[in-house]
User: Fold this.
Amino acid sequence: MTKAILFDASTLISFSMNGILYILEELKKSFNGKFIITKEVKYETIDRPLKIKRFKLEALKLNELLKKGVLEMPSIFNINEEEISKRTQKILDIANSMYQGKSGDIHLLDLGEASCLELSKMLNDKKIPNVIATDERTTRMLAEKPENLKKLLQKKLHSKISYDKEKAKHFKPIKIIRSTEIAYVAYKKGLTKLKGKQSLDALLFALKFKGCSISHEEIEEIEKLG
Amino acid sequence: MIEVDNILNILKQTKKAIAENNPLELKRLSNQTIHSASTNQDQENISIAVTIYSLGKIYQREHYKKLEGWENFNRLINNSLNLAIKYLEKGDLENYKKNFALIGKAINKISGKLKNFISDVFEKARINKASKIHEHGISLGKTAKLLGVTLYDLATYTGTSGVSDMPLNKTIDIKQRIKFAEEIFS
Assistant:
């Protein structure tokens, strides 16, 4: 049975900016499934940064993965991209009206993040096993522990926040991994260029410092697993 | 919708902080605005937060004041700020916006080193404020769009901000997440 990993921009950026996109290429060789990006994620990671000198190299490297077929578009699953975009808008509306502050709805997500959530649901409907790879904190909290996001918003905005528990059900059951868990799997499979425990530590922290939302404590836990 | 009284108050305090050469107060005012910007996500509050933060950084750097073009820049900032306050007091929002926008455009009236330094300050201020809004719980994608920066700009900044180490960020057990990864790659 085929399966899929849906890459959000944040995870691709963590790999790209650390110069370790080869890990995805190596993992893909033995992966019985597809690495997918939506057109919204492609825009954020390739199309737009291609026009910005500072990030053009990262964009070109990711574009190369697309050309090589390491990354693929959802059409590979016979899913119409216009349909994803249409449904993405709906899930975006749900996510962006799930939390209310004193001035009304708090808009939390953007198209790229929402498109991954929607595509995961569409693949679930097709019984295609999938996970979302996102290093982005808010998307993960919204899907996995919305009550924590409420507490965070209250703490930071210094005001009472309410959230709609019915709307939260739209994001279940979505499975999320991060660049750090992907790097760990690659390390365990012996696919990383540098070997040994130091290299695992270095990889995990490099990903954290390029934006992966993982705590020091979680990194220590992964390292204990060996 | 513009919160006229709030903005007026912030601009008056900004003017005072510049006159008293108090960059710390400018930073505080910018942070105050970022709360509203995170909730309302209106361009007005975002623009104010970025501009005041940038002014704080600019006025803090004494060596800028010795560079060619400083006096012109300083005069433009003060004039625009005075006019923005005057029009806001009159309830003339159109002219307020026009004059407040001139603060950011003052860069175009100077040249040389000072222009480069100040452009850099404004650009970094946008990324800094984006990072602050993200800290408030707004996603990277949404924040990047609001501030007009890229996700690449934000990645390094948020990675070193300490946001990920907040206990509330932990959503499921790490062993469970490793299991998700191992299962999908099995």
Q: What stands out?
A: Residues 81-95 of chain A form the longest helix (15 residues). Chain A has a mean pLDDT of 95.
